[in-house]
Amino acid sequence: MYQIIDGKRISQEIKDELKEKAAAMKARGEERCLAVIQVGNDPASSVYVNNKKKACAYIGIKSLSYELPEETTEKELIDIIMELNGRADVNGILVQLPLPEHINEDKVLLVIAPKKDVDGFHPVNVGNLSIGRPGYVSCTPAGVIQLLKRSNIAIEGKECVVLGRSNIVGKPMAMLLMRENGTVTVCHSKTKNLKEIAKRADILVAAIGKPKFVDESYIKEGAVVIDVGIHRNQDNKLCGDVDFERVAPHTSAITPVPGGVGPMTIAMLMSNCVQ
């Protein structure tokens, strides 16, 4: 029988630990503050921003919210970030992606001071991760590591396969698994023999961006499967990159969608803020 890795429960554990830490910091006169900037009113982005505000309120972190109109210029956005960089009372800055097409995302993310980049996207933080120095780590991959550790799943010495090489999930995921002494293979759209490589994995992380792409033919019996994908199927129900019903019976542990990796992303963002 396989174990369902419960991201809701684990993320709640982390938030409760952070709440205690934040209260202790407040008692010492240190208060954390996260500034969240959203440009335009993309409905999915609004949901994420709202969840981030709720998490801040729960943990006891102050949150500043900048809800800017769609037509905000790149310069206006950069000016706000520069002002927040200079504010001693703001510890974390988060720009909700995606940004409108007339704004250069890469340019904007570079403006955020690395020590306030709680999303872990700045090249300085990515570089620190790659050479094993401390810094903020991209929240979704950091959440995956916590899911594994808190479910008593050993990473050291395991064969780990990551499907996907994005800057936000695939690449940092591979580096974090290596940091935990896993042996890591990264696959992508140009990988040959994808199934054969996936079938070697003791731990398979699917971040490929295609609904139900991974079926049982990709899975080694008894593997641990982590599903980072999130999509809506033809019935408007949430599903992941993994075909859960077909894959789960072949695993020793698996994350569901929803309720697996998703809740961990905000928990790790809060962890970065408190840090």
Descriptive account of the structure:
With 275 residues, the chain is an alpha/beta fold. It is built from 10 helices and 11 strands. The protein has helices at 7-27, 43-59, 74-86, 105-111, 123-130, 139-150, 170-179, 194-198, 244-247, 262-274; strands spanning 3-4, 33-39, 62-68, 92-95, 159-163, 183-187, 203-206, 223-227, 231-232, 238-239, 251-254. Helix 6 crosses helix 10 (262-274). The chain is globular and about 50 Å long.
Mean pLDDT: 96
Q: What order do the SSEs take from the amino end to the carboxyl end, as H and E?
A: EHEHEHEHHHEHEHEEEEHEH
End-to-end distance, in Å? 38 Å
The level of helicity is 40-55%
The oligomeric state is single chain
Note the main sheet: 6 strands, parallel
Choose one word for the global shape. Answer: globular
**Distinct helical segment count:** 10
Strand content: 15-25%
Give the number of DSSP strands. Answer: 11
Whole-angstrom Rg = 19 Å
Q: Spatial order of the strands in the main sheet?
A: 1-11-8-7-5-6
Spans of at least 5 consecutive residues with low confidence: none
Question: What structural class do helix, strand and pairing data support?
Answer: alpha/beta
